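Tokens as discussed.
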């Protein structure tokens, strides 16, 4: 490495020239002359030299394409010339009609048109002033777009300074894309990180350009193809076809393949020729763009309200192929939704081999009558996982049976074996077990809910995005969140970001700090321990000082042993007396329950669930991590003597309907604080039914059993 600044400056210039030359060969000519490893070695050497001699760093150095500080939000840029979108067509007849229309508008004139590839990317506008990149913007609404200058600067094929003599004002229009190899690599990384895959390179490119952190764009292999101009000052031009050569002279990447035509037949032949070669391009294409070549003719043809009359985009039909459906696998998403996926006999579609296809949900399978063993038609259309379009019924095996979703999964979650329920909102089956390893979002959302730890701002969308962005994979991860990354959390899509914001992030962090000392009952409920609802959580909290005490509860072990030792009268009497003395049980009032002897605060099933949870690896890790995070739930324990003296001690309430001034949660909390028990079902053991408006079957059953029914005003008098 050079030791003095003069030597370093010379070597730095050599490296910059070499790297820019290799960038041009790779991105503009698609003809690299060195390997990726050799390129990385040159780039690393340049970076090391600039780090040693920081005064030699210039803004146009290849190393300065890295991002920089994340943005709070995108500012807006007004286009000097509107960015209009093109009309689309999907048939050759419509292409012919387009040419006939413009010929009618310009009678007796020759009208050459340019046919060029339609890159499947994101439309952007880049402004150069005196050859220097000034700003870049998205299309937006055509008049105003988002300022994505920092992200565009990370794209190696986009020059910061134009080569040669550049026009004074030169606004260029192009398509940013993620090349096929980069897209495949990105999705593999996201899959390994447990993040959702991008549907296609276009979505990935849009997400990269609209990311508030430019470093994200810098890490992705984005490219650019420029195809037109906006505002231009200091350059003459009469034909669109001349622009490709001009772009090359200025160092702007542009189309290598394009055609000139002046008849319908020639246009259609060019479209077909492009279709033959486009799969070999490093980027995805989804059509051909046909543009009038002469700028003077364009001016006379003019515009409609939304698009130019002198251009049209022809979209190629999505490729469809037939293959055999070998099996149907059911995956569990992080929200618990069960999704069927077709396992296919591998087949080549749109240039890549696919062996899986989405089946969406049970209703979709029924609608298309898809069966294992069927020959199916699949369509890729740029998507990562293609879709099954239809079944070839004529090739159906005789023994193929209609697909029974519930029977196929044996009525259980394929990951955890837990109960599943048909979710009408999502027209899908959902795993009900919040501790299912496949679920993360639901656990985080449940944990932060108002009825649990009441962590302000961490609702469904925020929970989903925290998991998606890798900021939380389990509920306790929330306590390690910092304000800055939480404030920048994107709650929108990659294409349309919407940040959480510093104000909301501050509130959430403050709520998390408060939650560290929330009542023990709330913690026991928030942890989603199987069989532990709010009532059970309250019952447990009244008889245990700390969460460690619950984990090692002698009371719960006594309940289990008591019910396992019914044949041993001496043992059950001894344990029963101990439980009654503690207040955790009372003598049974039921004549039919003489053998049982006592009624415990929680039954043996719940007791075993709690013990099993805290003895599991998840439970042990939870206790350990809560200690590390400084979480100390507030005690709600009361003595047996005090519990017996509480006004609602031994009384069971059932709540039904809507109360006028308080929620059912508030009413339940008041009952439990006064020693009462809240049940979810009406029985002869129920002492009071607290009924509000629109009370349902519980009220009817209470009347049938002759139970005491009270309203909110009577309840308040009791309080």
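Sequence:
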């Amino acid at each position: 490495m050079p030791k003095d600044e003069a030597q370093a400056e010379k070597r730095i210039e050599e490296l910059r020239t070499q790297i820019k030359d290799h960038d041009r060969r790779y991105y503009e000519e698609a003809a690299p002359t060195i390997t990726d490893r050799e390129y990385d070695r040159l780039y690393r050497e340049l970076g090391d030299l600039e780090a040693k001699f920081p005064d030699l760093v210039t803004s146009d150095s290849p190393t300065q394409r890295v991002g920089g500080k994340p943005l709070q939000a995108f500012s807006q840029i007004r286009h000097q010339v509107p960015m209009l979108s093109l009309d689309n067509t999907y048939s050759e007849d419509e292409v012919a009609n387009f040419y006939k229309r413009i010929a009618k508008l310009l009678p007796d004139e020759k009208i050459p048109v340019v046919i060029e590839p339609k890159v499947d990317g994101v439309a952007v506008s880049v402004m150069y002033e005196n050859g220097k990149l000034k700003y870049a913007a998205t299309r937006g609404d055509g008049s105003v777009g988002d300022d994505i200058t920092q992200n565009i600067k990370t794209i190696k094929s986009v020059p910061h300074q134009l080569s040669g003599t550049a026009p004074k004002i030169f606004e260029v229009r192009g398509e940013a894309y993620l090349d096929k190899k980069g897209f495949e690599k990105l999705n593999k990384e996201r899959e390994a990180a447990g993040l959702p895959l991008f549907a296609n390179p276009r979505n990935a490119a849009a997400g990269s350009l609209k990311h508030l952190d430019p470093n994200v764009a810098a890490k992705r292999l984005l490219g650019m193809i420029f195809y037109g101009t906006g505002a231009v000052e200091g350059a003459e031009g009469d034909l669109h076809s001349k622009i490709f050569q001009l772009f090359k002279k200025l160092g702007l990447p542009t189309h290598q393949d394009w055609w000139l035509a002046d008849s319908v037949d020639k246009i259609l032949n060019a479209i077909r020729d492009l279709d033959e070669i486009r799969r070999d391009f490093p980027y995805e294409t989804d059509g051909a763009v046909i543009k009038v070549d002469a700028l003077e003719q364009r001016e006379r043809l003019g515009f409609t309200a939304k698009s130019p009359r002198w251009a049209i985009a022809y979209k190629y039909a999505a490729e469809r192929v037939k293959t055999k459906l070998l099996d149907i696998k059911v995956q569990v998403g992080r929200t618990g939704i069960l999704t069927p996926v077709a396992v296919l006999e591998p087949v080549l579609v749109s240039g890549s081999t696919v062996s899986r296809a989405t089946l969406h949900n049970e209703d979709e399978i029924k609608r298309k009558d898809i069966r294992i063993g069927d020959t199916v038609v699949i369509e890729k259309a740029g998507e990562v996982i293609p879709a099954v379009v239809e079944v070839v019924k004529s090739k159906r095996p005789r023994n193929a049976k209609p697909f029974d979703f519930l029977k196929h999964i044996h009525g259980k979650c394929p990951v955890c074996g837990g109960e599943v329920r048909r979710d009408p909102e999502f027209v899908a089956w959902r795993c009900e077990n919040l501790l299912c390893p496949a679920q993360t979002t639901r656990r985080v959302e449940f944990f932060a809910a108002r009825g649990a730890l009441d962590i302000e701002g961490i609702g469904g969308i925020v929970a989903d995005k925290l998991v998606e962005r890798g900021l939380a994979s389990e509920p306790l991860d929330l306590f390690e969140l910092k304000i800055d990354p939480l404030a920048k959390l994107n709650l929108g899509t990659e294409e349309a970001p919407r940040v959480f914001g510093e104000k909301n992030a501050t509130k959430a962090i403050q709520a998390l700090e408060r939650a560290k000392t929330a009542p023990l009952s709330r913690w026991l409920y928030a942890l989603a321990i199987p069989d532990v609802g709010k009532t059970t959580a309250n019952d447990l909290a009244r008889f245990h000082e700390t969460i460690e005490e619950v984990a090692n509860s002698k009371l719960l072990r006594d309940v289990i042993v008591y019910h396992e030792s019914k044949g041993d009268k001496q043992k059950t009497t001894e344990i029963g007396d101990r439980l009654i003395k503690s207040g955790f049980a009372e003598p049974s009032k039921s004549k039919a329950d003489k053998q049982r002897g006592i009624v415990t605060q929680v039954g043996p099933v719940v007791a075993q669930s709690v013990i099993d949870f805290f003895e599991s690896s998840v439970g042990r890790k939870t206790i350990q991590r809560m200690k590390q995070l400084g979480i100390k739930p507030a005690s709600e324990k009361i003595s047996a003597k005090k519990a017996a003296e509480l006004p609602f001690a031994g009384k069971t309430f059932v709540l039904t309907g809507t109360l006028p001034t308080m929620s059912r949660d508030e009413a339940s909390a008041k009952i439990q604080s006064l020693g009462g028990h809240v049940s979810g079902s009406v029985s002869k053991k129920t002492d009071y039914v607290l009924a509000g408006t629109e009370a349902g079957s519980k009220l009817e059953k209470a009347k049938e059993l002759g139970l005491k029914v009270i309203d909110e005003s009577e309840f308040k008098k009791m309080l």
